[in-house]
Amino acid sequence: MRAISAPDEIFITARNFRMDGQSIGLVPTMGALHEGHLALIKKSLEDNDITVVSIFVNPLQFNSHEDLINYPSSIEEDKAMLQSLEVDILFEPTKEKFYTLKPVVGISFGELETTLEGKHRPGHFAGVGIVVNKLLNLVQPDRAYFGLKDLQQYAIIRRMVEDLSMPVEIVGVETIRERSGLAMSSRNRRLSNEGLDIGSEIYKGLLFAEGELKKKRNPKDVKADLVSFYSDIHGLEVEYVEILDPVTFTSAQTVHHDEVAVCFAGYVEGVRLIDNLIFAPDRS
Ligand code: PAF
């Protein structure tokens, strides 16, 4: 595996691969890699000749300084994991080299960011939009891989690529879960064993909502029941629960949608966790 930190070097290296006719997959990450990242990387290795994994904790997408400084990091373990998977390139820029100037360009995602993360983390997606644009411009991959746990991120990136005619395929990869059902996340490392147990209740709640929606109950009532399910769990603080159309991100008023997404965000031991479940309410 070749490790590159300079933006101009990744640009030239990726361009040389393309000129040789090799396809490139990009897996953008913020490090502290886990099984969820591995699923993205394995998919890229399967689909492409060359896989580039980026590790960069993007300060622009953190709307709280405390969250940024507490973001987990395990660079040596990450590198060992990437080596063992035979990833071709690790791109790990420094903040100084990546943002030589503080960007003045603003990216907004209109109605797609008026709910969920966009509503609760002001400025978050503007920061994601900038960093993903820069990475796509530097690497110019054929495909880029994103986890569906970050459903709204996946949706806004797909839309950005569509709106700006960016020549890349955005591939969404299913959420990987612990045996307990807890969605894999770098932030889980900050939880105690008790916190991990509490966190696993999030998925149970989502499954409960799925069952209720499949019985054709009204989404508004199911949402109220889900909030009450979570509020009974000691140590779990709900930030939001939403039942939405996973494409438009508008509230599901009825169960007559091809698919609905039940989305959760909240805190366990001060750690912010998100999760979602997407399903067709008409299918059992
Ligand atoms: O999902 C993430 O880890 C980040 O938001 C991403 C896409 C790497 C951008 O910093």
CATH superfamily of the largest domain: HUPs
Domain count, please report it. Answer: 2
* Strand neighbour order, sheet with most strands: 1-4-3-2-5-6
Number of helices: 10
CATH architecture of the largest domain: 3-Layer(aba) Sandwich
In quaternary terms, these chains amount to: single chain
In the CATH hierarchy, the third-tier topology of the largest domain is known as Rossmann fold
Please state the average pLDDT score: 96
- What ligand species are in this complex? pantoate
Q: What CATH first level of the largest domain would be assigned?
A: Alpha Beta
The residue fraction in helices comes out at 40-55%
Summarize this structure briefly.
This protein has helices at residues 7-19, 35-47, 65-69, 75-85, 95-98, 116-120, 124-139, 151-163, 193-214, 219-231; strands at 2-4, 24-29, 50-55, 89-91, 143-147, 169-173, 236-244, 260-268, 271-279. With 284 residues, the protein is α/β, with parallel strands linked by helices.
